[in-house]
Write a structure and sequence with these properties.
Keywords: Membrane, Transmembrane, Transmembrane helix. The chain is of the alpha/beta class. Helices cover 59% and strands 10% of the residues. The chain is elongated. The protein starts with a helix and ends with a helix.
């Protein structure tokens, strides 16, 4: 009877999943909202399935050995493991039923899909199976044996590893991935040719929730490069090559594998600390017998040493990666792209201060330290860092509004930086026309392009557009010298200086008092006016 109920449960979940999939299709949603709705529906159905499975297991005991296994006999590990395995198979069946039911809906509604490599599909389902069955076996062991803590420590390692594996973009964002276009593949081929390495499998994803903009995983013939679509759209060939070169060197030195081992050491340390506390409570409060406390203390010490040693080992892969990037791309380009993408090409928080203990335990040095190291190695003048916290002296950090750098504003800034001067002037003309101005782009000069905007009352204003990196200033000399003097055939009543860089203080001190808009203010105006789509439509 129990097995029949389990089968009925799986069939019922499959039918329920199909109904949910049909409802999703009828909503007519596409893109990111569609993907999120599908994922949430899948998680909800899996939760329902697990709940009913537990209920059936408790009420009807579908596995005959469960009653014997729950007698808390420490020597019946075979029975207990069999019970946990059977329970895990049911959970895995729930996951498989829901996935198979909703997957066709995803294929129907998504316009762009990527070809998932066979090894990725195998790795995905092996991970799901290990997590489902392994977690169930660990749960039963914890509940039924006196050696629960020991078995928990043994079983948790592959579970944590497989969970980290599930965090790959191909799994967590499967609804928002695709194959690269021909131009994108051509650019990436050029990057790997400069590195004298073979092109790996490529998966492009579009998900602002993902932590990394580029991630090269795997070894030898099964390497796969996951790359954010915005990174391909907003970078030049040299900037993209710098990011890829650093990522390729990290992959060659097994950065992500070492990164996983560090977190496993953290997990082992946490478990052993909990065990030690439990042993102390047992001895002091319950007058119990401790189970080899010295062994647990020794294991905790080994875990702590492994954790710190692993951190040092992982950090040692970063500086060689930076040297690999500067060997194929101009160091000045490398430091600028590092500054711009500081939050999305590293796995650590860039807002940490020197007093933050997490900074000492981070698996990567802060981006500011990496940029300053590049400047020292290549005798470059220190640049002002705009996207990372720079700490030149102890406790003296750069004052900047960390809340300003939202994902939307960062994306707008990247798009502006990827434009050329002509495209930037065209966008400024489009932007100003939203306020009822008729805009005309004049002939381009060496460093700027002027846009003449005509108001409804017939008066005119001149917009001087200056496209340059975010850390380069527009100075007063550029506006007052013979070369930079503002001249126009039409009489203008107002002059605005608009730049993607920053405005030097000398400009604000000019007697003419021009209106200035720097890169940060421009990003805020674009966001307030909801012109992200117009910005994306402007050719880079």
């Amino acid at each position: 009877m129990g097995i029949g109920l389990v089968c009925a449960l799986l069939v019922g979940l499959y039918v329920l999943s199909r109904l949910v999939g049909a409802g999703i299709r009828r909503t007519g949603r596409t893109g990111r909202r569609m993907g999120r709705l599908t994922m949430y529906s899948r998680l909800a159905l899996i939760g329902i399935g697990v709940y009913f499975t537990v209920a059936l297991y408790s009420m009807f005991a579908p596995f005959d050995s469960a009653a014997t296994g729950l007698e808390f006999e420490p020597l019946q590990l075979g029975t207990v493991l069999g019970t946990g395995f059977g329970f895990g198979v049911v959970v895995f069946g729930v996951v498989l039923a829901v996935h198979r039911a909703i997957a066709p809906t995803i294929r129907d509604v998504m316009e762009r899909r990527h070809t998932v490599p066979a090894h990725s599909r195998r790795r995905y389902w092996v991970s799901v199976a290990v997590v489902s069955i392994g977690a169930s076996m660990a749960l039963i062991l914890v509940l039924t044996t006196q050696l629960a803590v020991f078995w928990y420590l043994v079983v948790i390692t592959p579970i944590v590893y497989c969970w980290l594996l599930l965090r790959l973009p191909v799994v967590s964002g499967a609804c928002r991935t695709r194959d690269p276009t021909v131009p994108e593949r051509s650019r990436l081929e050029g990057c790997f040719e400069r590195l004298d390495r073979e092109l790996p499998g490529i998966i492009v994803f579009d998900d602002e929730a993902e932590d990394l903009a580029a991630k090269l995983v795997g070894t030898n013939a099964v390497r796969t490069l996951y790359v954010q679509a915005s990174l391909l759209a907003d970078t030049t060939d040299d900037e993209l090559a710098a990011v890829i070169a650093a990522e390729a060197e990290k992959n060659r030195r097994y950065f992500y594998q070492r990164y996983v081992l560090v977190y496993l050491a953290w997990c082992a340390c946490l478990v052993t600390m909990v065990v030690i506390v439990a042993q102390v409570i047992t001895v002091l409060a319950l007058n119990g017998d401790p189970d080899t406390p010295l062994a647990w203390v020794a294991l905790a010490g080994v875990s702590i040493v492994s954790m710190f040693g692993g951190n040092r080992l992982v950090r040692r892969t970063i500086y060689p990666a930076d040297r690999a990037a500067t060997s194929v791309v101009d160091p000045d380009v490398v430091r600028r792209v590092y500054d711009r993408y500081a939050e999305t090409i590293t796995v650590v928080d860039q807002e940490q201060t020197r007093e933050d203990p997490n900074r000492k335990l981070a698996v990567e040095p802060p981006m500011a330290d990496r940029i300053r190291r590049i400047e020292r190695e290549h005798d470059l003048e220190p640049m002002e860092l705009s996207h990372v916290a720079d700490e030149r002296t102890e406790g003296d950090s750069v004052d900047r509004d960390s809340g300003w750098h939202t994902s939307t504003r960062v994306a707008i800034g990247r798009r502006l930086a990827a434009m050329d001067a002509t495209a930037f002037a065209q966008f400024v003309a489009t932007f100003r026309s939203e306020w009822g101005r008729a805009c005309t782009v004049t002939e381009a000069a060496e460093d700027w392009i002027d846009v003449v905007a005509t108001r409804e009352d017939g008066t005119h204003e001149l917009l001087r557009t200056v496209h340059r990196p975010s850390d380069e200033p527009v100075t007063a000399d550029e506006l007052t010298s013979e070369r930079g003097r503002i001249e126009c055939d039409t009489t203008v009543e107002t002059v605005l200086v608009i730049t993607t860089g920053r405005i030097d203080e000398s400009v604000e001190a000019l007697p003419s008092d021009p209106t200035v808009v720097d890169g940060q203010r421009l990003v805020e105006l674009i966001e307030d006016a909801d012109l992200e789509d117009e910005l994306a439509a402007t050719p880079a």
